[in-house]
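Hi V.,

You were right to ask for the full record rather than a summary. Here it is.
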Amino acid sequence: MLSILADRSSRDCDGTARRDFLSIGALGMGGFGLPQLLAQRAHAAESGLPVKDTSVVWLWLGGGPTHIETFDPKMSAPAEFRSITGEVATVLPGVSLGGHFPKMARIADKLAIVRSFAHRNSGHAGGTHWVMTGYDNRQADNGAKPIRPALGAITAKVRGTNHPQSGVPTYVRMNGIGADGPAFLGTACGPFDPQGQARKNMKLETKLERLSDRRALLEGLDRFQRDADASGLMNGLDEFEAQAFNMILGDATRAFDISKEPKGIATKYGKGLGEQMLVARRLCEAGCGFVTINFGGWDMHGQLANAMKSRGPQVDHAVATFVEDIAERGLSEKILLVITGEFGRTPRVNRTAGRDHWAPLSTLALAGGGLKMGQVVGESSAKAEVPKTAPIGPQDLMATVFQVLGLDRKLQFTNFSGRPTYLIEDGTPIRDLV
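Predicted structure:
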């Protein structure tokens, strides 16, 4: 069993629990219906066109990250509006980030900071639905189910929900976000969730004494694979049973195992969020198309300075390490990192030294994906209240991600009412990035 633990669990002001961990068990050897699951998921593929070998890692700062203390410090604004954590100069002339992001400042030439990202729903569930799907859902904060599919589910629908060679799921989530499901695309397009039923399906049925001896277990699996190949057993299975065995013995499980990394890489990434980012990179290399990571704890209504001391440095280190790593591996054209949350925070600091919900200006940064990096896109108003330049909305972000993934912006699927529905209606790729 591989367990990846971040820091303590956190909870948003609406009571939504956040726990930043990933727990992966080895796949079991029978009796759990994995071939049937794979068959169901495979039927989701809707595209006969060649699939791009690009991937997205979606780092979700759950709770609503402050845009001012992250990527738009506004130190020229009055004291009650400017960043209360100061700023740090980046390698880009005249561009600074919030004071807790010195490592990201040093690799800012590999980032694109968007300072005009905005929408109009300042509720946790509603804002999440808008950013994750491109559409508002005013009833989301009253408990309504998502009415639109998330980007990862769309990717799974078009590409097929498992990689045809490695068996790695096309869409994986680490910690649920909300509004990250398939909606009318169907359950098969939902994210592979190591914390949910997938975890139960991946329990290894074996004796306790064998579990205590990892080497013997691995040797047994290797021997099983050799014996199966020699006996022709694999040739006698239908394609989904064969895929199930490949998931057990192949890249699908190895991708989650950071012990397979060369010595020192895991240490470089560090614990918690760093480990999750490393798993995400490994999943992308193995053929996963979309990975979401929810790193919560950003609902900072009070004592924001202290809260940023906890969250900021972890994001700073994990993101900088990830961006440098994919650059060194020649993957910057193949993997797009998106950093965002459901909304920003109020420009004026409140009476409890925090900031409240604020959708009219939100946090967004990107790296890689073959897009044009080393720039700031858009500009906010003098007090970081609203975009000063043309607003960039969730559908524009969605269209940009579509372009990276090679998805057609004219895609239509049948909605809950049985009507063909465009997934993007008015969004266009962010012009300065493409």
